[in-house]
């Protein structure tokens, strides 16, 4: 799981040098594809973690008129709202070489030679 509290990913949009992004693969499209897949994984992990935390506060009432606000639940929600977006986290991981990837097409080509 990614360490959300100690991430250096920007919260707002920032410009990144294209040459830094495509340097590991020498192909900008491949690099973006890898980053995109990692962002999807991060998003899934964050959603799962948030749902688990919010389920701790769940109260089931038969009455629709009764609204129960839990201060801790609101704080948890605010924490997750302030996090950098999954794509920013994925780009940060990519630029700091924390994403493992391999090109299976190249491996198949080597085996066929």
Explain what the structure shows:
There is one protein chain. The protein has 113 residues and is mostly helical. The protein is built from five helices and no strands. The protein has helices at 18-22, 28-55, 71-81, 86-95, 104-111. α2 packs antiparallel against α3 (71-81) and α2 (28-55) packs across α4. The protein is elongated and about 65 Å long. The mean pLDDT is 85.
Please describe the structure with a list of short key phrases separated by commas or semicolons.
elongated, 113 residues, mainly alpha
Cα end-to-end separation: 39 Å
Helix content: 40-55%
- Uncertain parts: none
**Topology pattern, helix = H, strand = E:** HHHHH
Mean pLDDT: 85
Cα Rg:
20 Å
How would you summarize the topology of this molecule?
Elements: H1 18-22, H2 28-55, H3 71-81, H4 86-95, H5 104-111
Helix pairs in contact: 2-3, 2-4
């Amino acid at each position: 799981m990614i360490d959300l509290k100690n991430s250096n990913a920007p919260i707002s949009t920032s410009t990144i040098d294209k040459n830094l992004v495509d340097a590991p693969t020498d192909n900008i499209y491949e690099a973006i594809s890898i980053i995109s897949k990692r962002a999807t994984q991060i998003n899934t992990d964050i959603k799962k973690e948030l749902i688990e935390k919010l389920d701790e506060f769940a109260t089931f009432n038969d009455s629709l008129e009764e609204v129960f606000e839990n201060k801790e639940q609101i704080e948890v929600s605010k924490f997750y709202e302030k996090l950098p977006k999954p794509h920013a986290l994925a780009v940060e991981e990519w630029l700091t070489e924390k994403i493992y990837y391999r090109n299976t097409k190249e491996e198949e080509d080597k085996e066929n030679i």
